[in-house]
Specification:
3 copies of one chain form a homotrimer. Chain A contains 13 helices and 19 strands. With 439 residues, the first copy, chain A, is an alpha/beta fold. Chain A has 3 domains: 3-66 and 164-357, Aminopeptidase (3-Layer(aba) Sandwich); 70-161, Domain of unknown function DUF2172 (Glucose Oxidase, domain 1, 3-Layer(bba) Sandwich); 360-438, Winged helix-like DNA-binding domain superfamily/Winged helix DNA-binding domain (Arc Repressor Mutant, subunit A), CATH 1.10.10.
Chain lengths: 439, 439, 439
């Protein structure tokens, strides 16, 4: 029986995920502000997050933490006096980080502040302007086309205050100080695959890993605004990550019922790359593809910048910008599937289990084979015309446990099942035939 | 003319091999005992073996040399008083290393001590029990099924004595102390491909190599019981092998008229791997396949254990367990072909010849090409519209004799014939254009 | 706009090339002598050559500079008194480096001194005898067959004098002392692809590179007799080349309207190999093939001899001996195309431009991405649903400018256009985001 299967008995309640989704959906998130704090508050019901508030203006690496954005109201009154584009009706309707504005303008003046997508006439686009002060509204193109001439009253009651940027993390201790680093972002407003699927997957992955009777590795879960958040996190904790990280992932876009895409780390052949590839290939029934690292994408851009070059990969369903609903109001609850989200949690979980077991051993009796009979380790039934599979596993393990090959590389080289190799390794450890060199 | 061909004029007398086969066939071999000694006595007529007796109980690496097994008689009397399963009629009929037993039992009690193969109803299986004390008989399944109810008299007159385990070796000195190591086992009773083909090939390969007018390399031929024998050999001579071995083979299963399988050494790209691959690919008309090292198999398991990791490969015809007659009475004289055995000797011989010539040279005039005209080395007829092949060989040799590439790697990179490259190298050596760096 | 295209506006006048071709054609070139000097005189009108005369008898590496060959006259009078095989009518008709001879002989005696090609009955072969004293005449096979019996008067008025061997070079200085080395030979008499195409291409490439407003690299152009010339050049300048050469080419056989063949340097993956491969693959519309280094060929045999192992490749149209007219009177003006020659100059020029820009950069802000907004480097239009291509180029450049990857390797890894990557690099240099590590 595969250990991975035994643990997999544990399964999230899909309804529970959906409930959290519904509560998180309406919050007006951005890279700073109350919407983020409320999001982290709700997630804290699932995972014990510790919060870190970084004051506006703090220098982090090459960047500066921006002012905190406060939104009190935002809407437009049409020439007929109708209230449209109310931020509280759909928070995508206000350009994120809009400057305050109050005034009246003609339709043609207003046009410079409107954003829509002619190819997707029903979609409200998601637009931000973090580092260039401007204001604007987003709306479906069909609606924009129906706006008539006349005078529009604009109200954007926003403010930039000397506040702070919110990051949260939880650490699940293991026997070793070697860490698995899991990062997701919480800065997008009401979107589903490219926002809530990531934090929800990470929070529920915590529950699974916390339920393990014991853990070799330490797991670090971080929730932060994209880009500026990971920059800030690295400014404070980059040295720690360099020293302790065995494997890492940015977890985002995992809610689509689409093939898995493994985007490898910049290192390309690190433990995280080889382990994720093994699980996708041998312990997964879903279609997948594997991409070499590329420097666009999400927060792995920061973790894999050349000065860090951390082993951070990403496992994605619906690569950013590959699904047409990306960064629009169409990336909503209808688009994603909670079953798909649960599968994604399962695959991430399996990878973590494999990382748990992916140790480098050294065969203590490296000269010749050990005399197994005196250790009750003559595996198999003892029929003599065929070496039994257990014996073959044992031979692979002993021959390649030379202090250089980790268990995943032995599985890959031998074509043998990783979980079975681990079972044999446990028996050899008990029999003092092998010892842990690195793990 | 290829040197390999010139030497190949020498050819064993197939009848002579067959005569030795017939004399060795009936001996009751095991990992210890008189059968082994008689086998080595007969082989000594072909190859001057020096014997090494290791006392029972001697510690060798993680193992201990077992007691010596003495067989005086073994048979069963049926309820009708018929004598069956007489060890002297066919020595596979007694489980190898059976404990002594004398007594009477019913057919159903006896069943626990009988071994047969339902899928091969005519075959007597080969069963051993070296490290778990038990006794038993092996028989064709059809015969087992015909045994009737009643009382059977069992006689197993065996004994375990404080004796010794027998290993033998012969060393054929060359100019250099660098060694080619050739190992075969002599512990299986009456079987043909998976026993006698190995020792016979090795003994007759000795004759060929001894007939060479001179040898660069030293050749070490060892005959020993599988597993415990190579373990013991390594315990005494492992350090010597580490220091001196250029290339090695375990020679076994070479009598079938089947494709050649090269099982590479654990190192994978050592001289032995590259040389054997070259010969199979370019100097061989028989089908072949090449496998990366795997840690099950024969004594290469010990030689390639991670603490030694010696460059020991194997060239096999009928991989263990790939021919259905493996480890049964069907692996007999009818199964093998003495022509095939002779071909195997030829291929091993060619590999040895290539190893003889596989030297790393250094071009003495490494800056620019040497001025060949003053050395009478302008090879070819001097026609000018086409560089002659001899000149091309010379250019490859001189350009890549940089102290790093051995001759096999130059042959592989250039696609030029290895034996012709060697001829050119000999002329360059005489002209002091190149010198030997390692060989 | 691609930089390569902008520079390419410059184009040689094909008629000008043809005029030089016509003037160089009739000269009787050899490895020494007045024909070579006159050739270099004419080429000096295009490229400012500095001449180096190495006295006969000078030891150069393993070789010795031969005596200078002086030809005053050479012809045969037939039994009918007709003058044939006059060297001044076609200089291929005299075996190059023929010893002097005056005398009368029968047709059958003369036969030992005649060279023709039965398979190419119209062709005069090109035959030399630099290091074995002999004399001879070359003629079309059809003409040889028509010679009648009788007495022939032979006149070869040649002399070997204590003169010198002529080499010339021009150096085009750049900001850096790192050099691009370009070598061609001027020792073949009246042949077109395998003689004049090389020197003409190199001389006109000089004009293009000299017209560049500035150059990072220094360019060294050398014109010398094949083999003995490059040997001599290395004897005097080999250490300098080892210290300064970034990339090199032997330029020869570039006048045929045939596919390009890149023959890589012995190093195989040096800057010159990767750059030429990039240009052929991505910035070239002509067919091409790529060959690994082989040690026959032209002067790269010397530059790539193991004691130098310089990064010298060759880009050829009509590999030596691959076109049937090779080394005969059929390799003439009709065979080549001046348009093809101009294309070859263009490709060599593009490779030089790429070498100019192929720098290793280091991202100064290696930890995390730089904050681009404050540097006005947020490239692209800022539309948010798709990362703009300029931004992607910037991300590739910054992520892989780690002090190890040169720009060509970033182009190859990313699949992005090299010239656009360079444009981005220039903007980043100005913004102090990257610095030059090696270039």
């Amino acid at each position: 029986m595969k250990l991975s299967n035994s643990y997999s008995a544990f399964q999230e309640d899909i309804e529970e995920i959906e409930n959290y989704f519904d509560r998180l959906w309406p919050l007006l998130r951005s890279i700073t502000g109350e919407g983020v704090r409320k999001t982290h508050d709700i997630l804290s019901e699932i995972i014990p997050l510790e919060r870190m508030e970084i004051p506006s203006g703090t220098c982090v690496l090459d960047w500066e933490v921006p002012k905190e954005w406060v939104v009190r109201d935002a809407y437009i009154l049409t020439p007929d006096g109708e209230k449209i584009l109310d931020v509280w009706e759909n928070n995508l309707q206000l350009v994120n980080y809009s400057t305050p504005f109050k005034g009246t303008m003609s339709k043609s003046e207003l046009e410079n502040h409107l954003y829509s997508i002619p190819e997707l006439p029903d979609a409200i686009p998601y637009v931000t302007s973090y580092y260039k002060p401007r204001w604007g509204f987003c709306l479906p193109d069909y609606m924009r086309k129906s706006m008539k001439e006349g005078s529009y009253d604009i109200c954007i009651d926003t403010e930039f205050i000397q506040g702070s940027m919110t990051l949260s993390e939880a650490v699940l201790k293991g026997e070793s100080e070697r860490e698995v680093f899991l990062s997701t972002y919480t800065c997008h407003p009401s979107m589903a695959n490219n926002e809530l699927s990531g934090p929800l997957a990470l929070a529920f992955l915590y529950k699974r890993l916390a339920a393990l009777p014991n853990r070799r590795l330490t797991y670090r879960f971080v929730f932060l605004p994209e880009t500026i958040g990971s920059i800030a996190y690295l400014a404070y904790n980059g040295e720690h990550l360099i020293k302790t990280m065995d494997a890492g992932f940015t977890v985002t876009c995992v809610g689509l019922d689409a093939p898995f895409t493994l985007k490898k780390s910049r290192q390309g052949n690190s433990v995280v790359d080889r382990t994720a590839e093994y699980i996708l290939q041998y312990d997964n029934t879903f279609p997948y593809k594997i991409l070499e690292f590329f420097p666009s994408g999400s927060d792995e851009r920061q973790y894999c910048s050349p000065g860090y070059n951390l082993p951070v990969a990403s496992l994605i369903r619906g690569l950013y910008a590959e699904f047409p609903e990306y960064h629009t109001s169409l990336d909503n609850k209808d688009l994603i599937s909670f079953e798909a989200l649960s599968q994604s949690i399962e695959i991430y979980y399996k990878i973590c289990l494999a990382l748990e077991k992916n140790v480098i051993y050294r065969n203590v009796i490296a000269r010749g084979e050990p005399f197994l009979a005196k250790r009750n380790l003559l595996l198999g039934t003892g029929a003599q015309r065929k070496v039994e599979n257990e014996m073959i596993l044992l031979q692979w393990l002993l021959n390649f446990s030379d202090g250089k090959h980790d268990l995943i590389s032995i599985a890959n080289r031998s074509g043998q099942d990783f979980w079975l190799l681990d079972e044999i390794a446990q028996r050899c450890l008990e029999a003092d035939l092998i010892e842990i060199v690195h793990g």
